Backbone:
C-alpha cells in the first residue's frame, strides 16, 4: 500500500499578486525536491508542472496539492526535513487559516492514482469523524494494515 495526501489552502490574494510572489517562485523548486525525494510516487500537476490551475472548488483562490508516497516516513521526510519546511513556516503570510482540517492522509493500493473527488471525500470524512484508518492526520496516524482491517 502507498500513502496518499491532500492539502488545500485559500490564498489571501490572486497567485499573480505581489503578496504571493515568494510562494509562487518556490513552487518549481519545492516540486523538484518532491519529485526527487526517496519514496515519492506521484503528484497532481497541470500544464504548468504544478497544480495551481486545478480548480477543485468554486473559489479560484483555493488550491489543492495531492500526492502519493511509498510510506508515511518518506512524506514526513520531504515535508519536515527539506526546504519544504521553510515554505510551510510562512504559510500564514499567503493563506487564510482554516478552522477545519485542511489536509488528509489515507492508504491506497499500489499504483492507484487518487482523483481530486476521492481526495475531497477523504477530507470530508476526516472532518466528520476525526482520525480513522480511512482518513487521518499526522496527529494520529494509522498503518496500511489498520486501513485494510477496517
Residues:
Amino acid at each position: 500500500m502507498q500513502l496518499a495526501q491532500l492539502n488545500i489552502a485559500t490564498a489571501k490574494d490572486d497567485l499573480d499578486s505581489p503578496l504571493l510572489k515568494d510562494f509562487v517562485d518556490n513552487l518549481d523548486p519545492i516540486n523538484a525536491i518532491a519529485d526527487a525525494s526517496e519514496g515519492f510516487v506521484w503528484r497532481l500537476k497541470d500544464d504548468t508542472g504544478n497544480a495551481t490551475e486545478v480548480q477543485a472548488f468554486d473559489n479560484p483562490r483555493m488550491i489543492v496539492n495531492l500526492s502519493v508516497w511509498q510510506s508515511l516516513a518518506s512524506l514526513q521526510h520531504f515535508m519536515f526535513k527539506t526546504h519544504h519546511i521553510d515554505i510551510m513556516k510562512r504559510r500564514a503570510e499567503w493563506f487564510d487559516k482554516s478552522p477545519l482540517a485542511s489536509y488528509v492522509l489515507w492508504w491506497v493500493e499500489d499504483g492507484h492514482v487518487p482523483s481530486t473527488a476521492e481526495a475531497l471525500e477523504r477530507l470530508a470524512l476526516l472532518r466528520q469523524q476525526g482520525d480513522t484508518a480511512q482518513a487521518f492526520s499526522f496527529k494520529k496516524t494509522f498503518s496500511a494494515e489498520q486501513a485494510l482491517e477496517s
Q: What stands out?
A: The first strand starts at residue 2 and ends at 10. The mean pLDDT is 94. Helices lie at 21-36, 72-81, 84-88, 91-94, 116-129, 144-149.
